[in-house]
Amino acid sequence: MSIDIGGMRIKYKDKDDTFLEKHLVAKEPFGQFKAWFDEACGRKEILEPNAMCLATVSKDGYPSARFMLCKGYGKDGFKFFTNHGSRKAIEMSANQNVAATFYWEVLNRSVRIEGYVDKLSEEESTKYFHSRPVPSQIAACASYQSTPIESRDILCERERKLEAEYMIPEKEIPKPSYWGGYIIRPRAVEFWQGQRDRLHDRIKFRKPAEGEVVDGKLLHQGDDGWVYQRLSP
């Protein structure tokens, strides 16, 4: 059975609400990301503005994607935390190249990130682990992410045992050795803003190729070693 949904469309922004080069608040991607992210955080309709779709590729070239929560960003990159035994972590250990996408529907905006990952230090991972609510810490200890499990009852039983051990006497829960953080170090960051006429705005920051010439027309000089350009929608 094939369902045709080709007629599904929504109106984006008006023609005079464009995203032009003169609207950039920074000539590097992190300052521009902060401006858009802060605006997304200010919209109550966006429940998790830090949600991003993380895409990884296996050593055999098979892609997979899932939504994560970004837990920090800056000029060093974008941070997230997960189980080192998960599918994403196993794929990242074999292939460091990843992509991530933020999408804020009510703003008609998206940010695409391409780069590679590094592991965060044990110190930083431990610090973040203990900043999480206790039930979240227990859940990380109870779940061996991405491994097959017979039933949810097994997870619940693990959770009960951990709660009995750590929540009643209020002991510190040790961070599991198989849990920690990563940072995406971008090579390219693209800012997309949807337009009603489908002539969407796309401005992409990237690292220049060796010997590439910045002509001020198709390619513009940015800050901190970045260049940027407008892409056709």
Please give a quick description of this structure.
The chain has 233 residues and is an alpha+beta fold. Helix content is 24%, strand content 30%. Strands 1, 2, 3, 4, 5, 6, 7, 8, 9 and 10 form a 10-stranded antiparallel β-sheet that branches.
Which SSEs are present, and which pair or pack?
Elements: H1 29-41, E1 51-57, E2 63-69, E3 72-74, E4 77-83, H2 87-94, E5 97-104, E6 109-119, H3 122-131, H4 134-142, H5 152-166, E7 179-193, E8 201-206, E9 220-221, E10 227-230
Antiparallel strand pairs: 1-2, 1-5, 3-4, 4-7, 5-6, 6-7, 7-8, 8-10, 9-10
Helix pairs in contact: 4-5
Keywords:
233 residues; 5 helices; 10 strands; Pnp Oxidase, Chain A; 24% helix; alpha+beta; single chain
Please provide a written account of the structure:
- It comes from Papilio xuthus (Asian swallowtail butterfly).
- It is an enzyme of class 1 (oxidoreductase).
- With 233 residues, the protein is an alpha+beta fold.
- The protein is built from five helices and ten strands.
- Helix 4 (134-142) packs across helix 5 (152-166).
- The two termini are 32 Å apart.
